[in-house]
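Weekly modeling sync, notes
Attendees: S.R. (lead), two postdocs, one rotation student

Agenda item 3: backlog of single-chain predictions. S.R. asked that every request posted to the team notebook include the full sequence so nobody has to chase files. The rotation student volunteered to paste the first one in as an example of the format we agreed on. Action items at the bottom.

Example entry:
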Amino acid sequence: MQATEITRRDPAERKRATLERLGAERDIWLSTAHPDHGPHQVPLWFLWDGQAVWMCTGAKSATARNVREEPRVRLALPDTFDVVLLQGEAEYYPARGVPRAAADAFAGRFGWDPRTAEAAPYLYLRVTPRTVRAWRGEAELRGRVIMREGVWLA
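Predicted structure, as returned to the notebook:
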């Protein structure tokens, strides 16, 4: 295996690339935890609305249970070379109580509308990032925080 040279990106380029990926990718890993049951991690479809990540899960799932007990979550895009990690607090909405614009955008993106699903009820999760980290390889470990306290640093 041959090593590939990595060009270090400045914070503005990392932010641009992160926002591009948030708008284009389909899947995100959501990590939750429960005081009694411990950590839990699942991949979910997601929608980036420009401010927050929207996801959907079964209303009775371990993910929903955990978010109700402990809203602090972590999200990760599924690439171990081009890492994007988000941290924030999840808000949850029953399918009948989700803001219409978010639910319509989610349904339009995936061709599936949890509000009309005949299976068990669904819960929408909204995470507005408070911290975002992005890096490609060791060359970018320093300066990997590109959002802190909800404010982009670039």
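Discussion: group reviewed the output briefly. The chain has a mean pLDDT of 93.
Action items: rotation student to repeat for the remaining queue; S.R. to check formatting next week.
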